[in-house]
Amino acid sequence: MNRLNALLLAVVVLCSWSVVTSQHVSRLLYSDLQREQKSQKQLDVEYGQLMLEQGTWGAHAVIEKAAETRLGMHTPDPRQVQVVSPAGAT
């Protein structure tokens, strides 16, 4: 009977230890999940901002203005424009 009680005590201790360990691991994983979800939200916000910026920079007027101010470019006079056809075109 003493052996049976010792064996049952050991089984109960091992089971309780495994429950505590699994709860600890579960809490650590939940903490990691929360951190990654927060990072995902930040990346979603940044992606939205970049899409807005891309749309802004893609506008023809913005590109033309940047070319004029930063690069000193201008639209040529129509008399100065020459149209070149590809070789072999009819």
Tell me about this structure:
This protein has one domain. It has 2 helices and no strands. It is mostly helical and 90 residues long. The chain is rod-shaped, with a radius of gyration of 35 Å. It has helices spanning 2-57, 60-71.
Summarize the structure.
The chain is mainly alpha-helical and 90 residues long.
What is the secondary structure topology, with strand pairs?
Layout: H1 2-57, H2 60-71
Shape: rod-shaped
Strand content: under 5%
Total number of β-strand segments? 0
Q: Biggest β-sheet, characterized?
A: none
List keywords for this structure.
90 residues; 0% strand
